[in-house]
Amino acid sequence: MRDFKMSPRPQWNSLSDVPMGSSCSSFHICDANAAWRVFRPVMDYSLCIGCHQCYLLCPDGAIHKEDAKVFHIDYDFCKGCGICAHQCKPGAISMVKEDQA
Amino acid sequence: MIKKLNARNIDAKECFYGHKACGGCGESLALRLALKVLGEEAYLSLPAGCMAAVSFIYPNMAFKNNAVITPFASTAAVATGIAAGLEALGKEAPLSVGFAGDGGTADIGIQSLSGAIDRGEKFIYICTDNEAYMNTGIQKSGLTPFGAATTTTPAGKAIHGCVTEKKNMFEIAAAHGITYAATASIGYPEDFLNKVQKAKECDGPAYIHIYTPCPTGWGHGSKITVDLAKEVVDTGLWFLAEYEDGEFRLNRKPGDFKPVADHLKRQARFRHLSDEEISQIEVMRDRKWEKMLKNWG
Amino acid sequence: MSEFAFLNGNEAVAWGVRLSRPHVIAAYPITPQTKAVEKLSSFVQNGEMDCKYLHVESEHSAMACSIGSSSVGARTFTATSSQGLLYMSEGLPYASGARLPIVMMNANRSIATPWNIYGDQMDAMHVINSGWVQLFVEDAQEALDMVIQSFKLAENHDILTPVMINVDGFVLTHTYEKVDIPGQELVDSFLPAIEKAPHLMNDQDPMSLCISAGNQHYMEFKIKQHRDMFKVFEQLERIDRDFEKSFGRSHGGAADGYRNEDADVILVTTGSVTGTARVVVDSLREKGIKAGLVKLRLLRPFPSDDLYELIGKASAVGILDKNISFGFEGTVYTNVNSSLLQKGYRGRTFNFIAGLGGRDITKENIEEMFSALLEQKGETVQYFNMGCAL
User: Fold this and answer.
1) Does residue B21 lie in a domain region?
2) CB-based contact (8 Å) between C215 and chain B?
3) Taking CA atoms, what residue in A is nearest to B229?
4) Residue of A36, A61, A65 lying closest to B17 (CB–CB)
5) Quick check: A19 and C199 CB within 8 A?
6) 4Fe-4S ferredoxin-type domain: which residues (chain A) (predicted)?
7) Structural domain spans, chain A
8) Complete DSSP assignment for C83-127
9) Phi and psi angles of residue C260, each rounded to the nearest 5 degrees, phi first
10) What global pTM score does this model have?
11) How confident is the model at residue C234 (pLDDT cuts 50, 70, 90)?
């Protein structure tokens, strides 16, 4: 579950806008990672058996669990690494080329 | 009795998100899973390295938690400083956790880790081992395995990759008489989750050494990261063990090891190895297991 | 109630720390700082201080632990010297860049090789660009008082910069003086509990600290840090005035003059040698020679304005350096010269290098320095008390 709102990129007009002490609020995300992706995972819910492996093993946490059998992919942050599709035993996730998706 | 953690009952909330790690990064999966157990209250210390580089570049901060980049050698020292500071300020049961890679742990950070374990204060240290300095471009570390090609131990004509074996970092941590130590692999994620849970509950320093493949550094497809991390245990090249109450325990004793060659050849860093060298790796593995079974069986 | 005691500089620092009630001390022993951390340990072990004392395995970790504890808002003290300062030096810009109000005593000592445990100021000069406030004290009383003042300075939300209190090795750390130990209640009212700065890690609004900033952002972070450091002058003066109101003594601001108003020639000093120089100035004055003295208390930030005001009218100025920047000159001299040039100073400047590796700086040496200034004779950079010809 994504637990933040995207932040605007900070604009600095003077040094007083610059954060004190090489610091920044945590979970301050301005840029999505979607552009990294060549293949996108696409889920066929009719094949999903709710084994949770895609959700468990996504290095980006980009597969969200809505209930025991509904998994939702956050395409803003999925990098298309393919772990989810590879680990999905029933083959419910297929990797589709971005321009064909 | 602590509830056993699994994919179904772990916290759905993500505390590590939007990071810029390579696709299929094993190390980032280890951090993400650890934080599912540690929770957003944990204070995190990470040295300059991949995980700091992918999650702290202004203005993108990928941790929900309080988190700090430490000097490279200082993960454990900063983490124990945080724990001491929070305790002195009156915070009840503060949780301070250091995450460092293989170089940050077994090489440059080993002194401060040793000092911190020796002080005996409660903190958790998780070594995410991808067997080379990945952030600077895949140089040999003290945890690079025999035979692996790195940019400082290339598969040369005279010398065929790394000539040394991995330091026994888990045993080194345990030799301090640490409260809890364990090895893990992201190929066995539920085992890892429960070890993090044990580390969180234990009263004193805890060390977890987790095997985390790196597609970029090892030269494998990003989708097989978890496969490799499982295979490495099944081939006996890595092991799942714990050190608790002064005793070592093997969590998993494979009957027959899966073939080493198939596993190694899936990674570009090992493709240069001759059959003879692969046999040598098997001999090293068998020697290690003989000792482990004899001493920890 | 305050009480008088015979304390050496190390013990005076330890008392200053005890009275400041830090939450965390992380330190490693090194000569000649050792007695300070021993004294602090005994305060803690005897229950006289309620403080987490971290027995670290190195100075590198002393600074790293201090970074950790300060980054969650704990009042933090550490102490070191010489090689130890150099060993922890990687952590110094981390602390200052993160704006962590750590206070550290540095017992000034030479740098190897040759190995030498005695006092000079080579160590502090090594880390002059680390972003720490660099303060030099003249005696044990000033050392004790400046620990208390330094916490107040460092923790001020306009400043939020770590402070290094330089105490000359052996000459101050091991020499006993009569020191007034202020009462705890008075110190508590002067130095209240630390108020956590908003950028530090906290449970309500989690922060990421010591972050990375690329070429689009790095420079602004660093220039902000640089510009904020100049605010130290005003705050230090204010703190010292308040200190005087509470404790009945003051130590001056960034630089302090002695018989300098009408002086023809002025010697600029840092640290303990100032005491000897005062005696020489007095004796020269008795002879009708218009000699004066300026004690530089701060080297970072560097008090250019104060310095020019204190010495602008003198015809010649000598800068006594207990350090040397190899292949150039003494570091304090470089700093003074540059700032005087900016202010349009027209007199001559000399650099007197003395006291390296614990070599005595005698009254006679200082008299020689003044005569070089009065006659404006000799090389620009001169070495004192050498045992052989150059």
Assistant:
1) no
2) no
3) A57
4) A61
5) yes
6) 39-68, 69-98
7) 31-97
8) HHHHHGGGHHHHHHHTT---EEEEEE---SSS---S--SHHHHHT
9) -100, -15
10) 0.97
11) very high
